[in-house]
């Protein structure tokens, strides 16, 4: 499973999960509003993409500081 966050330009901001196995069912991941370099990102709209071996999902989220 991989979970990545992208900005409005489609640039990768943060990889939250990379190749990890998770139990089936509901799971929770908290993003602290920082990029992969641990620098704080601006408030605004971001997109996430969740990929598993069988499926993909994506959505929009708003980061408010």
3D structure, described in words:
- With 65 residues, the chain is an all-beta fold.
- The chain has a four-stranded antiparallel sheet with strand order 2-1-3-4, with no helix packed on it.
- A hairpin with a 4-residue loop joins strand 3 and strand 4.
- The radius of gyration is 12 Å and the shape is globular.
Would you kindly provide a brief summary of this structure?
By secondary structure, the protein is mainly beta.
| Count, helices | 0
One letter per element, helices H and strands E, the order comes to EEEE
Number of strands: 4
The residue ranges in which pLDDT falls below 50 over 5 or more consecutive positions are none
Q: In which range does the helix fraction lie?
A: under 10%
Structural topology:
Blueprint: E1 2-6, E2 12-18, E3 44-51, E4 56-63
Antiparallel strand pairs: 1-2, 1-3, 3-4
Task: Output the keywords.
65 residues, mainly beta, four-stranded antiparallel sheet
